[in-house]
Amino acid sequence: MADLVAQPMSAERTPPGPKPIVDGKRRLPAHVGVYVFVAVPLLAVLAAVPFAWGWGLGWVDVILAAFFYTVTCLGVTVGFHRYFTHGAFKSRRGLRIALAVVGSMAVQGPILHWVADHRRHHAFSDKEGDPHSPWLFGTSPAAVARGFWHAHLGWVLDRDLTNQQRFIPDLLADRDIRLVHRLFGPLTAVTMILPALLGGLLTWSLWGAVTAFFWAGLVRIALLHHVTWSVNSICHMIGDRPFTTRDKSANFWPLAILSMGESWHNLHHADPTCARHGVRPGQIDISARLIWVFEKLGLVHDVRWPTPTRLARLARVEQTPGA
């Protein structure tokens, strides 16, 4: 019992309180770092086509890129999102720290910033105060274009910091999570260097290290960035909405595999603490399957699985005239 720790508090249980939504601005060196880690991987993607045309890409690169993409993406979807943000299940200390570390290696920002932003998003979804709604500027074509840019990437470049005392007091009280937060820089170095090291060892060549760094490091991070940001932007603009929500969240099936089930976004906003987002036949949700495996192995417990009764009620409300 010694390794039991306080569990995450969901966005729905975050007390509104009198505290402001924003608490200061990102320091200039950190803000420059944001630009670097947005721009450099994106430039790598733009260079990928000529780089791969007949040379510079091998099976080792493909396998390493797929492996690191899958692991770090699940660190975000299962760890940062469903666990730390929404408390969709409970975990012991070892897995809790592992999820925080692997999620940090996705290079989407330190864990305390990430979770605070996302709880704020749910508290004000598609309303004033939402850090990345595409509907903040209106519904005209120009406003929608501006909103898409803001939801997809513009908000990342904003220096305002979400008030952590208001949105994540539970994580601020967790010594392990505060340490992982402070280690974001070294973990970013690890997620870039480790693929290169493995590529060099597996091919026994310097060139193998270079190409692995490019594909399993830079390109992998850029792809994961834009898949995640697409859930913020596209999944609040287009798609089907079978469940009732207070916002414009929607399901966008083309992203289901790459997002590990996060693009089944409508049910998530209808029932944010639910451990499974893809609840209908054919809706593949890899993140939920991993949580299921963890549960079978005894690594997590008190999983908030969807129930037929609850799903029926959420869907039925949408079908009620005048609802």
Automatic annotation (TrEMBL):
GO CC entries: membrane
* Short name of one Pfam family: FA_desaturase
What's one GO MF term for it?
oxidoreductase activity, acting on paired donors, with oxidation of a pair of donors resulting in the reduction of molecular oxygen to two molecules of water
Q: Which residues form the Fatty acid desaturase domain?
A: 58-277
The record's region (Disordered) falls at 1-22
What are the subcellular locations of this protein? Membrane
User: Mind telling me which residue stretches traverse the membrane in this protein?
Assistant: 34-56, 62-83, 95-115, 204-223
Among PANTHER family, the record links this protein to: ACYL-COA DESATURASE, BLL4393 PROTEIN
Q: Give the record's GO biological process terms.
A: fatty acid metabolic process
The highest taxon in the source lineage is: Bacteria
Please identify the protein, giving its name as recorded: Stearoyl-CoA desaturase
Q: Which gene encodes it?
A: desC_2
Which CDD domains does this UniProt record tie to the protein?
Delta9-FADS-like
